[in-house]
Amino acid sequence: MSRKRKHAESTLNPAEHHIENHMASGNSAKKKPTQNIHFGNPTRKSPPGASSIHHSVGRTGYYLISLYALALLIIPYFRGLFFDQDMIYADVILTGLSLLVLGIYWKKGTEELFQTPLPYLVFGILLVYFLSAFQGIVPALAYDEAFRWVTYFLTFLALILLLNEETKPFLFHGLLLSMLWVSLFGLFAQFGLVSFQDAILGNRISSVLQYPNTLAAVVAALMIGTLFHLSGKADRFTPVHSKPDPGSILSFLYALFLPALLFIFIYSQSRAAWLLFPIVWFLALFFLSLRRQLHFVLSTLLLGAVSLPLLPVYDQYVKEKNALFLLLLLGAGFLYALLSLGLAWLLKRWEKAPRGRVGRFLLPAFLLLAGIGSFTLIQTPAFVELLPDTIKGRLSDINLTTRSVAERGTFYEDSIALFKEHWLIGAGGNAWKGLFLKYETLPYYSSQTHSFAMKILVDTGVVGTLLFLTFFGILLYTLFRVLRKENFSDAVLYRIGLPFVTGMMLFLHSLVDFDMSYGYYALLFISCLALLYSEGRRERVELRFPFLTEYKRRAYVQGAKISFLLLAFIPAFFMLLYAYAESIPMSGLSAAQALANVERKISLKPVSVDYRLMRMDLLGQKSRRNGGEELVREGMAEGERILALDRYNTQTYLKVASFFGQYGDGIKALEYTEKGLENGKWFLPAYEQYISFATQVAILHFQNGKKEEGLSLLREVAARLTEIERKRGILDQQIESQRYPEFAFTEPIRRYGGQALILLGQSEKGTALLDPLKGSGDPATKADAFLWLSIAKEKLGQANEAASLLEEGKKIDPQIEEKRAEMFKIVDAVKK
Questions:
Q1: Cα dist from 294 to 124, 254, 290, 396, whole Å
Q2: Which parts of 158-314 are beta strand (E)?
């Protein structure tokens, strides 16, 4: 047996739990007995041949890695860390934990780490995030996103220092248990056993992530990772009478819940996840020996065999909230776990299983052909009819013209347009959220790019994207060097394959959805990367900087370490400030107390648009209660500061404009609304607000004798109405899924647009806009419709209809006649 083969066998990952001392070569006739290595044994020494770089982390390392695993178990409950106000607390905790790790292993681990490119690449990426935040396009969003990546990368570096042969199982099982908890929570929510906002969206399971597609990716990664992990039993089967170790118990637990996971995966109803699952599942085969491949394939088929018979009755149980179905799933899981063990036992007895690289490709080739046939089969009407209605509906939507698919293409085209204007270092973290209305070419509403690749491109530009690509490239090259050093042995392929296929499912799905905007999801992915890179450290194949020669190395490395640590403390300090700001209460307080608290928040986080909007509104409320023009003026000044911080966001302009309009400055309100409309050409609420404000200001101009100013505004309103009609025509020419029928005249547009047209003498067009409002559910809108329709009919010479409309209007608004007389004066003044 070759030296490399012996070395590979002696260094198998303890996460496999039951490991053979000897893996037979093609000519071996006999195997040595199986050796049991117990999960997480802190006294176990590193295997012979393992490098010194894969240092011992001591008992402290177990505590630290366990704390991180515990954090992964707890933090998903905070809405998957999707919102910045939740993520900032995780930032503080995980960044603090990571800095603690760097401090504890300052001499043991960081010396070697800082001879590799990774810390410098990390620093470069973070520098791009902060530089793009400094340029101030959307500073509040940019800083929040920069802090997220500080957390992710510090966590990655800390995990690299903590991971070795003894600690990897802690992280591996921590990941699986966390993902299992998140998945099962969604299933419990569907049966009403737990309650969480948006854990169920319609009939789709979304769990604590509140988004079904991202949950589906997590469940898919967990299922593939679990099946891959269990496939090791084909080579490592332990008789049931032997003493079980914690790893075996956990493996049985994972098998027990696989049928439940399959149902969660199906009823998350994510088309992208459904399509990606077989691709990653197929990819996993190339990391397995033939015997493990057979277990992987057959255990997948067994999973379907024991689970899918329950599928036809699932909808009825869910409708009745009958949790008895969970017991049926548990029973199916128990049966599946036993069958999986039996399958492992049978395959273990196949002592002459073919080995070598050729055997590794035979089964995948056969399955590829079978997969093509199966895909054809599931497209047939006879098969589709066997499925529940909800599943049939989702399957029928798997095509390139489905709205969510076609819409993503539009997102990506618009992302490229945004990138072109900020190509060097990007527009800043999470820039799309603040800028998409400015760049959208169709009237969608999506504050996320739905692609990790596009998000990186928009956020960090060419420089940041190249740094990210280099980071991932180094990881992949390190894995290749490990495989080449170990001659692509079964042992190393299995070790690498386990985190690789799990992480690959997470990564591929993130390319077509906004998964990485979830802090929890990103941490799962980062953890998989750390597990992979730790293999390179184990085998001493990390890339090193050649210029760090022996006599210079210590000075350079020590300087880099100290600089990196100092720079890491700066964002950590601001994280603490931001977290403290978020913790300051706002509910249940008097206006004065709330105002004082929000001013404290602003002092801690001056770039926050949300806090400043709160302050502006509170100043307005206080002025209404206590009087005083000074408060209103300060509120308006705050509005100006808000627009300076968020100068491209249509929605921010509309909010500030509304404040100005509410407190008497209609001219400024109209000016800011117009700027908002310029930054959101497809944003219908901007049209609503502009047409509303412009018409009302025009009427004020007429009342004050400013006829030309009023007419100018009315002509602008008419032009906006024509613009909406023109864009509606463009949409009608799109494919059906992208016609956006909701982009049409709304009640506010009809109400004030109709008034404007009647004032301009276009009574017929005004009548056409206003007539549908006679059935409005809003009394003010309905009364206005009758008022202006009666005026229009009068001008068209239809006195009887005008009188009838007036009588109907009196039932809603007793003062309609006085208002009508006043409006007639304005109409007559406009005509002169």
A1: 45, 19, 6, 32
A2: 200-201, 204-205
